[in-house]
Amino acid sequence: LPRLAPNDDANHTAAAAHWKRLEAEQQPVPACTMCTRHRSHGTTGTAWVHRPPHRLVCPRHHQAAPEPRLTSTLRTWATPELAATHHAHQRLLRHPRAITAWTTARAITTRWYDHQQHLTHRWHTRLNQLCATNPHLTTTGSASPELLARDLVIYPETVTLARALATQPSRSHRDTNEALVLIARQLGITRFTPTASDPLHASLTHTRR
C-alpha cells in the first residue's frame, strides 16, 4: 500500500494492522468431498466454502458441515430426513418472508435445543445416529458433539418452523394459542404447552401486537 506511511506523523506511532476473528457464521466450512472431487477433476477431495444456511446439506452425496470447527464433513445417510429438509428449504426461499422467518426459527430451535425443551428426545436420537456414522464427531477436542452437530440436528424442525412462521396470517393477539396449536401439529409435538417466556410464544405475541 504505497499511501500507508511507515509512521503516523500526527501521533508519532508506528502503523499496525489489527486482525479480528470472524464470527462462526462467516467462517468457511469443509465442502462436500464428492462434489469437490468432481469439480477438481479428481485432483483433490478437500475444499473450504462459505456456506449459506440453505446449503447446509449436500443431498446428492449425503454430507454436511454444520460447524467451522469440524475439519471434515459429516455423513448424513443414516438421517435421510436431512436431505428432504434441504429440498424443503429451497422451496421456502421462494416466500417473501423466508429470511426473517428462518432467522427467527433458528433462534427459537437453538434455544429449545440448548435448554432441552419440547423436541429433546427426537434431537437426541438424531444426534446418536450422526455420532454412530461419524466417529470423529466424538473425538474432536474443540467442542462436544452436541455443539458441533447442533445446526444439523435441529435443521428439519427449524425449516418446518420457519415455513410455519412465514405463512402465518396476521391475526390478533388472542389467536396466539391457536397458532401455537397449529405449529405444534406441524412439528409433530403432541403435548405443547409453552410458557409465556418461551421464545416461540414470545415471538407470536410480539408479531400480533
- Largest beta-sheet characterization: 3 strands, antiparallel
Helix coverage percent of residues?
Answer: 40-55%
Number of strands: 7
Number of alpha- plus pi-helical segments: 9
**In percent terms, what proportion of residues is strand?**
5-15%
Mean pLDDT: 87
Globally, the shape reads: globular
Structure description:
The chain is mostly helical and 209 residues long. 44% of the residues lie in helices and 7% in strands. It is built from nine helices and seven strands. Strands 5-6-7 form a three-stranded antiparallel β-sheet, covered by helices on one side. β5 (57-58) and β6 (63-64) form a beta hairpin. The longest helix is centred in the middle third of the chain and has 17 residues, at 98-114. It is globular. The mean pLDDT is 87.
